[in-house]
Amino acid sequence: MKNTFEIISGIHSVEEALHAGRREFYELYAGRPLPEGIADAAREKNIPVHQKSADELGRLARTDQHQQIAAKVTPFMPESLFTLFKQNGTGTSSPLYVIIDSVEDPRNLGALIRTSACAGVTGVIVPKDRCAPLSPSVSRASAGAMEHCRICRVTNLVSTMKELKKSNAWITGLDRKGHLSVYDVDMTGACAIVVGGEHTGIRRLVAQNCDHLCHIPQFGAVNSLNASVAGAIAIYEAVRQRSREKRKTNC
Predict the structure, then answer these.
(1) Which of 7, 69, 140, 247 has the smallest number of CB atoms closer than 10 Å to its CB?
(2) Domain 81-250, architecture per CATH
């Protein structure tokens, strides 16, 4: 039987979950006076607040990085693929998706989700297997951005990529051995960026179903980038290209 609740912790995770309104809050736990915004929201929503020691909060949240605040909430619910494709955020004809393949570190997944939210990405697509779960740790690592981001969890990434192609989206995979530079790939139209795992990169079948494989130019002695950093560079290159294209269109 699936859990009907989970414990999120950290000021940003709790505050953003309150603002997003996606989760039901059962209780708040605090080791110090609540920040004003959280206290106001708790009163407005009639959420009980219980005082807890730092040790008690650590046991509840299963981390010592709780910032003396935690909450008992309903689990995070991803969107369906149908909903994500049909209602693509702003209704733009040029959606930008981020596909995350085999990223197993919650900190990297959280950072990628945070970047996607900040960049206005239409949706984030993650596999059910070979990926960190959408857990309280990921919400905390995303500084609460996960609570706002449109995220879809799918059984088969390759099938999902084929569905994206049917809607005329081009798919660009990040790969150190890719022949193209990320700066030479056109990402101004409907597209998806595939970010691979920390150790394995993009899986073979996923790579084969990309329209382009591109690398991020590197000039130092170290020849690899953290998965979340590589993803952020590619996402904001797409944002840069789209902003430039929009300025041209408006001229």
Answers:
(1) 247
(2) 3-Layer(aba) Sandwich (3.40)
